[in-house]
UniProtKB/TrEMBL annotation:
SUPFAM superfamilies: Creatinase/aminopeptidase, Creatinase/prolidase N-terminal domain. Belongs to the peptidase M24B family. Keywords: Aminopeptidase, Hydrolase, Manganese, Metal-binding, Metalloprotease, Protease. This is Xaa-Pro aminopeptidase. GO terms for biological process: proteolysis. It comes from the Bacteria. The keyword Cytoplasm does not apply. Gene3D superfamilies: Creatinase/methionine aminopeptidase superfamily (3.90.230.10), Creatinase/prolidase N-terminal domain (3.40.350.10). It comes from Hymenobacter taeanensis. InterPro entries: Aminopep_P_N, Creatin/AminoP/Spt16_N, Creatinase/aminopeptidase-like, Pept_M24, Peptidase_M24B_aminopep-P_CS, X-Pro_dipept-like. Its cofactor is Mn(2+).
Length: 554
């Protein structure tokens, strides 16, 4: 799944069962944890020692005299009294392994005393056991389960956070990620996420007008205000147009008003010393999460292999009379068959002009017919997401025009692969792919000038992959342990200013690669990517060929 915008510099990212009648009146909301806490869970989840090590590395990155706070993700409502299946905040899961809502994590640079327990460097506050609620939404870990399974040093009921005795005024700096704002307040729960955030704001004396985005921008000015001024200045100028309040920030104003390097140096040095910050914690998590540990790579391999096999099976099953949503369902059936809990993002299955819509997720075309079919789909396995795209001809054979565009994208991807090695600039794969596509489009007569390339190749070629499909990372030089996508594409929608024979052709080829010490490992290589291999795969019998359902009569 592609990024919509290329980052301009290597800086941290800125940031079911529906009940009716009387039952609906007494039932709690239907949000629940990703997986049940209990003896039947699979054995290959990350070990608590992994999360413990991650917490310690974040704590080491904190300045002296500081504290860091992270909150669980909010429960999101889907319709009326039905919530979406709960999905934990990736940073919170990375540091804890906890997959339930209404929780918070606190990391102390120096040991603290909480409720009489000395030497505390980490504390988690979780939702308590509640047999009545658990009857509706599933088993909760509670404090005892959290202690036993997640091995956090200090565990307490979330209702105890307000009286935990954290001496907020004693900390020189308070670090946190952008606080969730659109959170429902459950009047039946005195310590839900809404109350936890409110209590933190009050006890830490966080100013009501604190702007997390300003904190991030201050960090960018400090890091890149001199050596990256030629790119940072226009970036900030565009940013303040979209966020007028940011343009009123004195530090931002001072930097943008500077007319030369001497003035910029003074402006950069004039950074205010704020007690509250989101930038340091964001930067620490970017640096950690961009380099995958062997345990993480194992889960990513599993997610990617499942997705690649899904592409194989759907290639074999595809026919012109099938619909986009049917084919989406086949992908997702394969994911469930192999134990993947979710999709990493909404599946994109688009034929013809729909393939030219970059984030097309309706998947509503009743028959794909003979138009090229773009399938951007990825399984999420134990929280880690794959991201694999293949483009195929439903008839089983590429037309001459389809073949020419496809071969161009394939050549661009091959060029990008050659740049996937340690030490290369993060944007090197994109630059290589863009050059091939630019020259190829001109040779085919689709464009006349290089500037027109972006019309048909409007996105970046790579992004990090991990707990988020667009995972955290610094966008610095590639290094061993990075897992990135390589996904060039060409999209020629109907009505484009070129020969009509190219219209309605959308091609993206996306693989997930692990950067190794000497180069890269294509984790998704099991999904056919050459024209010859795709056509051979599509000619094979499918396990779904004899899957017949009754015809629904009107």
């Amino acid at each position: 799944m592609l990024h919509t915008v290329l980052k301009p510099l290597a800086w941290p990212a800125l940031p079911a069962l529906i009940l009716t009648g009387l039952l609906a009146l007494v039932a709690p909301h239907q949000g629940q944890a990703q997986r049940a806490a209990g003896p039947d869970r699979p054995a290959d989840f990350l070990d608590p020692a992994f999360h413990k090590q991650r917490r310690e590395l974040v704590r080491q990155a904190l300045p002296a005299g500081s504290v860091a706070v992270l909150f669980a993700a909010p429960v999101r409502n889907r319709a009326n009294d039905v919530d979406y299946v709960y999905h934990q905040n990736a940073d919170f899961y990375y540091l804890t392994g906890y997959e339930e809502p209404e929780a918070m994590l606190v990391l102390f640079k120096e040991p603290q005393t909480l409720n009489g327990q000395a030497g505390v460097t980490e504390a988690i506050f979780v939702q308590p056991r509640n047999p009545e609620r658990e009857q509706w939404t599933g088993h909760r870990l509670g404090t005892e389960g959290t202690k036993q399974q997640l091995k956090v040093q200090y565990v307490a009921d979330n209702k105890d956070f307000a009286a935990a005795g954290i001496k907020w005024a004693s900390f020189q700096q308070v670090h946190f990620l952008e606080l969730p704002e659109d959170v429902r307040n459950d009047p039946r729960d005195p310590a839900d996420l809404y109350d936890l955030v409110a209590t933190f704001r009050q006890q830490a004396a966080l100013p009501a007008n604190f702007d997390a985005s300003a904190s991030e921008v201050h960090k960018l000015i400090e890091q890149y205000g001199l050596r990256g001024a030629d790119r940072l200045r226009p970036y900030l100028q565009n940013l303040v147009q979209d966020q007028p309040t940011l343009g009123q920030d004195a530090y931002v104003q001072g930097y943008l008003a500077a007319k030369n390097d001497v003035e910029r140096q003074k402006a950069v040095a004039n950074k205010p010393n704020g007690r509250f910050s989101t930038s340091i914690l964001n930067e620490a998590l970017d640096r950690l999460r961009e380099v995958k540990t062997p345990e993480e790579v194992a889960l990513l391999r599993r997610a990617v292999r499942i997705s690649a096999i899904g592409q194989q099976e759907v290639m074999k099953a595809t026919r012109p009379d099938l619909g986009e949503r049917e084919l989406q369902g086949l992908h997702e059936y394969v994911y469930r068959k192999y134990g993947a809990e979710f999709e990493g993002y909404p599946s994109i299955v688009g034929a013809g002009n729909n393939a030219c819509v970059l984030h097309y997720i309706e998947n509503s075309k009743p028959q794909v017919k003979n138009d090229l079919l773009l399938m951007d789909c990825g399984a999420e396995y134990h929280g880690y997401s794959a991201d694999v795209t293949r483009t195929i001809p439903p008839s089983g054979k590429f037309s001459p025009a389809q073949r020419q565009v496809y071969e161009l994208v394939l050549a661009a991807q091959d060029a990008a692969f050659k740049e996937c090695k340690p030490g290369k600039d993060f944007q090197a794969p994109h630059a290589a792919a863009q050059k091939v596509i630019e020259q190829g489009l001109m040779k085919l007569g689709i464009i006349k000038t290089a500037e027109e390339t972006r019309k048909y190749f409007p996105h970046g070629t790579s992004h990090y992959l991990g707990l988020d499909v667009h995972d955290r990372g610094s966008n610095g030089p590639l290094q061993a342990g990075n897992v990135i996508t390589v996904e060039p594409g060409i999209y020629i929608p109907e009505g484009s200013p070129c020969d009509q024979k190219w219209w309605n052709i959308g091609v993206r080829i996306e693989d997930d690669v692990l950067i190794t010490e000497k180069g890269y490992d294509n984790l998704s290589k099991e999904a056919p990517r050459t024209i010859a291999d795709i056509e051979v795969m599509m000619d094979r019998p499918s396990a779904f060929d004899n899957f017949k359902l009754p015809v629904l009569e009107n």
